[in-house]
Design goal:
Radius of gyration: 32 Å
Keywords: Cell inner membrane, Cell membrane, Cell wall biogenesis/degradation, Lyase, Membrane, Transmembrane, Transmembrane helix
InterPro entries: MLTG-like (IPR003770)
Largest sheet: 2 strands, antiparallel
Helix content: 40-55%
Order of helices and strands: HEHHEHEHHEHHHHHHEEH
Function: Functions as a peptidoglycan terminase that cleaves nascent peptidoglycan strands endolytically to terminate their elongation.
Catalytic activity: a peptidoglycan chain = a peptidoglycan chain with N-acetyl-1,6-anhydromuramyl-[peptide] at the reducing end + a peptidoglycan chain with N-acetylglucosamine at the non-reducing end
Protein name: Endolytic murein transglycosylase
Amino acid sequence: MSVRRLLLIVLALCLIAVLVVAATLLTVRQYLDSPLSLPDDAVVVDIEPGMPLQLIASRLADNGYLSWPRAMVLWARWQGFDRRIRSGEYALEAGQTPRTLMALLMSGRVVQYPVTFVEGWTVRQALEHLWRLDNINPQLQGMSNDDIHSALQISLPALEGSLFPDTYFYTKGTSDVAILQRANQRLQQVLTEEWQQRADGLPYESPWQALIMASIIERESGYKAEKRDIAGVFVRRLQSGMRLQSDPTVIYGMGSSYDGVIYRSDLNTTTAYNTYRINGLPPTPIALAGRDSIHASMQPKKGTALYFVSRGDGSHQFSDTLEQHNSAVQRYLRGGAENENN
């Protein structure tokens, strides 16, 4: 075989090799930008700490999501992406490609789960709701409120009312401690902000007392437009030496014995929370107070009303005198309900 012929063969083989490599690279590139075989609903994959890319790709392939796992693994290793994967749960959505999948796994944008603490809940209701959720690490479950208060290192005097009602987001494995501390920090922030802007002459010795008032307002009405009116009534009662006579405080003091109805005997039973029997504020909040109620406690509406009664539609009728209040009770409650006698 001549040298010329040998060179032609070598050149031909090199050309074929180049074409094969080019075709392979083009195929890989097209694959990297092709959608994964995902269902319409988002798929959540859990990447454990230290999990190798080879295992991740293998599991995705086993589930039918990834058709050419080796191509993605080799490309990612060549780019150095395999060393930058972050652990956690990731949501894969329709339209995701191997290229965007790797970007997601390196981003740390893990699945966030919501937990909502509702305005007006007791702290025990909030805790029970939290512990029913998936993916929570319950470190405090089974503990008393006092022990939880200590474990969270809350600076306020009691656990009740010390969480801000809002929606919080967490990742898989987050502890209840972490979520509750965030809710307490948010409460402290809002309480401090409102306290710094409070009206003059309020009958509170501390932000804690204002929070107690806010919790009563929260339980008295969910109607935002009249929270400051209710706050005004209670502030004027405190300033004039009257008792608050708030039914929600009676209910809270009754605990599990409350069956949905307040009887005259309940109003006459002395508890630390029965504001028909005690002077001033109860010792702790009775519920989680939202910002509107906290604001209302710090900025009560000026006026002369000392009484209010439910109209039955969520709003209240306010009265200056007991005579006017009794007439309103007859009008809206038809003289039947003792559990609205504010």
